[in-house]
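Fold Annotation — chain and its backbone
Encoding — discrete vocabulary of local shapes
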Amino acid sequence: MFIFWLKIIDMLRVDFHSPDYHPECGLKYVIIGARHGNKWVFIKHKRRKGYELPAGHINNKEDPDKAAERELSEETGASKFEIRCISTYTVLEENKLRAGRLYYADIISIGDHKDMDEIDEVIFSEYLPPVLTFPYVQSVLFDYLEKYRKS
């Protein structure tokens, strides 16, 4: 299945590509749209103070799928879940291209998060929280996740 979607605002552009797309800039991030008990899971980062989808950097030579599983578990406390990559996304801002993989996860069991140094709290919501760390990009990714979930 190939999905392509593009959204532009000012000098920021978000593109969605097939999950197996490999951009020239390489993959740096994984972002996970996770649901538990019919609600979306968001984390609040201690330093950034806003709410975010669970996410993180792909470590050197780490498989993006393994990075997504690791980040979901560390940031939310998810211990049993089903996760799948639904898109590779790119963000072009001020002529700088960054890329990552977007995942969708259904959390079956969840406990306390393990990343006490970075994560302030984990919340469950039917909607995108009003205070976001990265308002534009997070809202575009969330819209994509909602469309995926409903399809």
Summary: The mean pLDDT is 91. The chain has one domain: 5-150. The helical segments are 64-76, 135-150.
